[in-house]
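Box 3.1 — From sequence to structure: VDHAP protein
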Amino acid sequence: GEALEVTREVNCVTDFIHGCEDQLQKLKKQKEKGLLYGIPISIKDHIDCKGHIYSGGTVKFLGQVKEEDSVIVQVLKSQGAIPFVKTNIPQTMINYDCSNLIFGQTLNPLNHQKSPGGSSGGEGALIAGGGSILGIGSDVAGSIRLPSSFCGLCGLKPTGNRISPSACSDKTFVLAVTGMLGPIARDVDSLLLCMKALLCEEMFQLDPTVPPIPFNEEVRLR
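Predicted structure (token representation):
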């Protein structure tokens, strides 16, 4: 409900992910609850979710319904999280604003005369507006860090290849800098919890190209 109110105000959600209720019922039956049990998580538009399109902010991709969840979405679900919305991006994502001709302009909830930043601008706007407590964005040259800064949030671009990009539809460009998926939230502790949940055996098994290095509590405390 809050996500709907926020997107009516600032236009940050592109799609609501169906099956949330069914997933919640499945989670209740699981013996192991997972580190993110019951937490609704928003997902940047270009991250593949089964039964949903990846638009990239362009008409070209509007007919391409994804047949499976990306690795990161599979891992989030296994850890008990509930991906519930997909969020807006600029066209082709190579932009520090957040606007495209399909979904329109996303505004900064702190100041409607300002941009939320990009390219994970829908994530920044939704979380800053109170419509989500944790989201997954992506970053090549600031696409997590800029919206986090513009919207007064915390964000992390992990080390290259730390989290699987598999089945993530952002292969439009060949870039010298490794693009990474990463969390956005209101505080650092939420980022740490998300990273700890993602760096698990299931991710390493689903994508063998990711180095099987679990979350290090000692590094966290430094």
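Summary of the box: The domain at 2-206 is CATH 3.90.1300.10 (Amidase signature (AS) enzymes).
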